[in-house]
Amino acid sequence: MPACLRFVLPFAAALIVAGVSELPPPAHAAAAAPRMTRRLPPADTGRTTMDGVYTLAQATSGRNVFAANCQSCHTPAQHTGPPFRHKWFGRTLGDLFAYIRREMPKNEPGSMSDDDYVRALAYLLRMNGMPTGSVPLAADIAVLHRIRLDSVPAVSSTPGSR
Ligand code: HEC
């Protein structure tokens, strides 16, 4: 082959390889993402849902919000148990809040106030056996992203122990 091609071909091959590595990650990589979040030291998310991050009053009014806006399609139990845990534990409340606000109610996404979305979220936490606290959960996405859904409190967990 001409000398110039000998020079260009390896380059082209390198470009193709680089291009391939930019394809979307395979499905199993996406599934692994929550586990990566799980391994973050507590300082990175600050608190977990075991630290009393919502009030009983919020969860109680959240039950009414759920009954009025969600129960036509969901049973409360649908958002508890192994499938729900598998999907959401290790992620942040910000992730769950953003998802619900963006997608739910399925027939009218984004139609509720942020406070009502947070009340529904508090109700889901209560359904998952998370303890209540004295300070209401804020309808603030930045704050919610610093609280991890988990079955262990941040204060008693040490980085790398799980
Ligand atoms: C009109 C029917 C409908 C209503 C009302 C509705 N949802 Fe959904 N919801 C669905 C469907 C269908 C899915 C499955 C995912 C999809 O199709 O987007 C879903 C999925 C979800 C999920 C994810 C389930 C999982 O296991 O991860 C959550 C959480 C959720 N809904 C919460 C709510 C909340 C909270 C409300 C009330 C504010 C609500 N939904 C109202 C139909 C509905």
Notes on the structure:
By secondary structure, the chain is mostly helical. 52% of the residues lie in helices and 2% in strands. The chain has a domain at 39-148: Cytochrome Bc1 Complex, Chain D, domain 2, CATH 1.10.760. The chain has a two-stranded parallel sheet. The longest helix is centred in the N-terminal third of the chain and has 18 residues, at 3-20. The structure holds heme C. Heme C binds next to helix 5 and helix 6. The site of heme C has 16 residues, from helix 5 and helix 6.
Briefly say what this structure is.
This protein has 162 residues and is mostly helical. It is 52% helix and 2% strand. Helix 6 crosses helix 7 (114-127).
Secondary structure: helix percent? 40-55%
Shape: globular
Helix/strand structural class? mainly alpha
Number of strand segments: 2
Strand content: under 5%
SSE blueprint and pairings:
Blueprint: H1 3-20, H2 27-38, H3 42-45, E1 47-48, H4 56-69, H5 81-88, H6 93-103, H7 114-127, H8 141-144, E2 147-148
Parallel strand pairs: 1-2
Helix pairs in contact: 4-7, 6-7
The structure holds heme C.
Key attributes of the depicted protein:
mainly alpha; 2 strands; 162 residues; binds heme C; Cytochrome Bc1 Complex, Chain D, domain 2; two-stranded parallel sheet
